[in-house]
Amino acid sequence: MLALVGFLIIIVMMLLIFRSKALPAFCFAVLPIIGALICGFSLADISDFIGKGVGSTWQTAILFIFSVTYFGIMNDAGLFDKLVDGLVKKAGKNITLILIFTSIIAMIGHIDGAAATTYLITIPTMLPIYKKMHIRPTVLLLLCGAATGIMNLVPWGGPTIRAATTANVDATELWIKMIPMQIFGLVSLIGIAIYLGVVETKRLAKLGLVAAETEEADEEKSVDLSLKRPKLLWFNLIFTIVLIIALVQKWLPTYAVFMVGTIIVLAVNYPDPQLQQKRIQAHAPSSIMLTVTLLCAGIFLGVMTQTGMVLEMSKVLISALPVGLQRYLHYIVGALGAPLGMVLGPDPYYYGIMPIIGQIVEPFGVTLDTVGRAMLIGENVGLSVSPVVPPTFLAIGLAGVDLKEHIKFSFLPLWALSVVMMLFAIIVGII
């Protein structure tokens, strides 16, 4: 019963979202509650599920509100102007070079293993360049997502820690064996950036647009020059660098870093309280809708996991596999890691499914750490399109892209990349 209702919720949700019949927030908030009631859970139970789910997303919601406001203020003050102009001048009209820069920045930005940090470093920095060069923001999200997924295999990354915990092995030991595959993935990412650069160049040529030139006059007219703070450029730059260091070093909770940082830069750049209020109001529309969606996603996550729907769904999928293929089950689940991780989320995937897979393949001599490495590849690379992971909403909010468009553009390329990486891992004996 739980599995059936769970599948129905997922199917109805996807149909409503992709046919633009309902907002994601509606689907996340309403459908799971209806499903839980059908399964016989009381309102008291559902209330507890919701509390646990929203409890896992509220920090990201606060982070999103203040990070969008922070980078919006920095953009108003002109912090990114010289960087944008410099990179555009360096690249000329070479869109491919811009996409390679994006990939490298995202790789470096994910050294701390936190997707939110990667998005906060890469997207606000590169988005103005993409707009000036007429590059679709979905390309930016795809490259950021791929870089995040590949780099997230590090031992301090959340998925690797989960897999290591389940396998009862050291996370570093689990990661070391995956380093060749990780390097292969990063090289593949540069190849994807080059390919997308060619695609975007041809697209712009077909549309008759000239990168970095045609919008400059209009853009200058639309910018309020009175908001620029050239004399505070070095303060804003140094403050932002310190803020990023604080994120990486975890001096404070991530959301607290941006809360405090936003208030400080707002006061320094715009001392007039009325102007401060206007700047907050100017950036509020960019954050409120995604914040609503993010909090509602907490309801979805809490109800789906706490009721046991996710675990029962995974058991049904595994039981449907022919007996003859059971010895290869870890390969199959690894290859399907992107769509499975997208629907289930990391906790049920590693703590719920991974032990079951391990029990099935153990008689064939496959160890649980091998299962963990196989499952890490696909789930990690495809995680950036998952609607049950809070950083996804942070990314699409920063880029100004609908969830539907992000999934349509990025899901298949990310899944393909994960499968190619897994094939490489099989060939070289990593799994």
From TrEMBL:
InterPro entries, alphabetized: Cit_transptr-like_dom, Citrate_transporter, Glcn_transporter
Transmembrane portions of the chain: 32-50, 57-75, 95-121, 133-154, 174-198, 232-249, 255-272, 284-308, 328-345, 411-430
A cellular-component GO term for this protein: plasma membrane
Topology term for the membrane: Multi-pass membrane protein
Top-level taxon: Bacteria
GO MF term list: citrate transmembrane transporter activity; gluconate transmembrane transporter activity
Keyword terms, alphabetized: Membrane, Transmembrane, Transmembrane helix, Transport
Every Citrate transporter-like domain range: 14-378
A matching Pfam family: CitMHS
Primary location group: membrane
Subcellular location: Membrane
Protein name: Citrate-Mg2+:H+ or citrate-Ca2+:H+ symporter, CitMHS family
Annotated organism of origin: Enterocloster lavalensis
Source lineage: Bacteria, Bacillati, Bacillota, Clostridia, Lachnospirales
